[in-house]
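Incident log, structure service

09:12 report received: a user says their structure output differs between two submissions of the same chain.
09:20 pulled the input from the user's history:
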Amino acid sequence: MSWGIGSEQKRKDIKELMDIASRIMQENPNHVNEVAKSNNDCWMEQMYLMQRCDFCDLSPDCPTREEQEWQDYLKKNNIVIEK
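09:34 re-ran on a clean worker, output below:
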């Protein structure tokens, strides 16, 4: 079962995520309807109770990714924001 993914580690990670989802749904079939919004707006943390940015590519407007891109931009352009 390859799911069209070339990396063995990524395959294992996705299988682990699927196993977690199965466990959550077995424990509470209404989890999707009852899940609370995560503090950082991460859909993965919200649904799976974990955050794995290393293989999450489903949300182009991910707040964690946007923050990282912003910090990279600031660093690249030598911009310092004083608080």
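09:41 both user submissions now match this output. Likely a transient worker issue. Closing.
09:42 reviewer note: The radius of gyration is 16 Å. The mean pLDDT is 81.
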